[in-house]
UniProtKB/TrEMBL annotation:
<dbReference type="GO" id="GO:0051537">
    <property type="term" value="F:2 iron, 2 sulfur cluster binding"/>
</dbReference>
<dbReference type="InterPro" id="IPR036010">
    <property type="entry name" value="2Fe-2S_ferredoxin-like_sf"/>
</dbReference>
<dbReference type="InterPro" id="IPR001433">
    <property type="entry name" value="OxRdtase_FAD/NAD-bd"/>
</dbReference>
<dbReference type="Pfam" id="PF00111">
    <property type="entry name" value="Fer2"/>
</dbReference>
<comment type="similarity">
    <text>In the N-terminal section; belongs to the FAD-binding oxidoreductase type 6 family.</text>
</comment>
<protein>
    <recommendedName>
        <fullName>NQR complex subunit F</fullName>
    </recommendedName>
</protein>
<dbReference type="GO" id="GO:0016491">
    <property type="term" value="F:oxidoreductase activity"/>
</dbReference>
<dbReference type="InterPro" id="IPR039261">
    <property type="entry name" value="FNR_nucleotide-bd"/>
</dbReference>
<keyword id="KW-0830">Ubiquinone</keyword>
<dbReference type="InterPro" id="IPR017938">
    <property type="entry name" value="Riboflavin_synthase-like_b-brl"/>
</dbReference>
<keyword id="KW-0411">Iron-sulfur</keyword>
<dbReference type="Pfam" id="PF00970">
    <property type="entry name" value="FAD_binding_6"/>
</dbReference>
<keyword id="KW-0001">2Fe-2S</keyword>
<dbReference type="InterPro" id="IPR008333">
    <property type="entry name" value="Cbr1-like_FAD-bd_dom"/>
</dbReference>
<dbReference type="InterPro" id="IPR001041">
    <property type="entry name" value="2Fe-2S_ferredoxin-type"/>
</dbReference>
<keyword id="KW-0479">Metal-binding</keyword>
<dbReference type="InterPro" id="IPR006058">
    <property type="entry name" value="2Fe2S_fd_BS"/>
</dbReference>
Length: 342
């Protein structure tokens, strides 16, 4: 793949591996050059760049370790259906394995106002940024009112259960409630999914809280809708969700060949419109800067002149979208078009 516009990365190696659950591991990474990592905030993520089955791939993982220790970062990786990179790491991660790691980034972090009341909601591995945030609260001795709601299938699926318990012992203002969707031996209050009614029963002061949601796309969408239905302002609901995006067009149409020109490189490709602009460029050996690859971070934003179809725009405001800005990872060409890197 071409090195054009390649995001900076750091060569790291795995120094430790921990088994979290039957389907989840944590890898501890140190820089090969021995230097500390750049300062990061709890809740931020890094992109891993690696080659799997002959493909150069990039995937994002939240840092789940304390932001106060810059000598090592911990990434918690859960096996997922058809998860090419996550499953490969779960199967092949070994001490000494070297990985290219991008710089920490992301806005899913604690508010600058420490007295702000918070609501955290997580499903599955979505708990990882909150573990990092709990470490930050303990390490910096911040007093913060937090209601933390977690949803997992069974007790054995709860990532970091002992770590959560140990951290919360030091944080009297953090309230943790966990529900189980497939666990037989639990009370009726602990069984089932989170609903608007259940959220309101646990957290009666939503109006004064800032909500953070992390998990799969279905979970975060449902919880966002539930919170808004309870009167929370959309701007007070923050969402973090890394999930697989279909890179092939599912729109039914009679597509013929079309041309996509990428500027300022001046290259032009013939395509049938079945690949996203990001997948198309990568297949041709040209890299468009990208991070999350799920329409959330905005790193792959481009300006498109010509017909196209976008399956997501969460990272773009209305003014940008109206001006022709699109996310390359979510956009399919629908005819001859010119794509300009932003």
């Amino acid at each position: 793949m071409s090195s054009m516009n390649k995001a900076p990365s750091i060569e790291c190696q795995i120094s430790r591996i921990a088994i979290e659950t039957q389907s989840c591991i944590s890898i501890y990474l140190r820089r090969v050059d021995g230097l500390p990592f750049l300062q990061f905030s709890a809740g931020q993520y890094v992109a891993l760049n690696l080659v799997v089955q002959g493909q150069s791939l990039r995937r994002c993982y939240t840092i789940s370790s304390s932001s106060q220790d810059s000598s090592v970062i911990r990434l918690t990786i859960e096996r997922v259906n058809q998860g090419l990179v996550s499953n490969w790491l779960c199967d092949h991660a070994a001490i000494g394995l070297r990985l290219d790691v991008g710089e920490p980034t992301g806005q899913f972090v604690l508010p600058s106002e420490s007295k702000k009341k918070l609501l955290w909601m997580a499903a599955g591995s979505g708990v990882t940024p909150f573990i990092a945030m709990l470490h930050e609260l303990v390490d910096t001795q911040l007093s913060c009112d937090v209601v933390m709601l977690i949803s997992v299938k069974q007790r054995q699926d709860l990532i970091g259960s002992n770590e959560l318990e140990a951290l919360i012992k030091h944080l009297p203002n953090v309230k943790l409630v966990t529900t189980f969707t497939s666990e037989a031996d639990v009370s009726s209050e602990q069984f089932g999914r989170w609903t608007a009614e259940r959220i309101a029963d646990i957290c009666s002061d939503l109006d004064g809280r800032l909500a953070y949601l992390c998990g799969g796309a279905a979970f975060t969408t449902d919880m966002q809708q539930a919170l808004i239905s309870l009167g929370m302002a959309p701007e007070n609901v923050m969402v973090e969700s890394f999930f697989a995006v279909n890179t092939h067009n599912t729109i039914e149409a009679e597509l013929t060949s079309m041309h996509v020109q990428l500027m300022p490189h001046g290259v032009q490709w013939k395509t049938d419109g079945t690949q996203t602009l990001l997948a198309l460029s990568e297949s041709q050996g040209v890299e468009i800067p990208s991070v999350c690859r799920s329409g959330l971070c905005g790193a792959c934003s481009v300006t498109v002149k010509g017909p196209c179809h976008s399956e997501g725009r969460e990272a773009l405001d209305d003014a940008s979208f109206d001006a022709g800005v699109r996310l390359a990872c979510m956009t399919f060409p629908r005819g001859d078009c010119v794509v300009e890197l932003n």
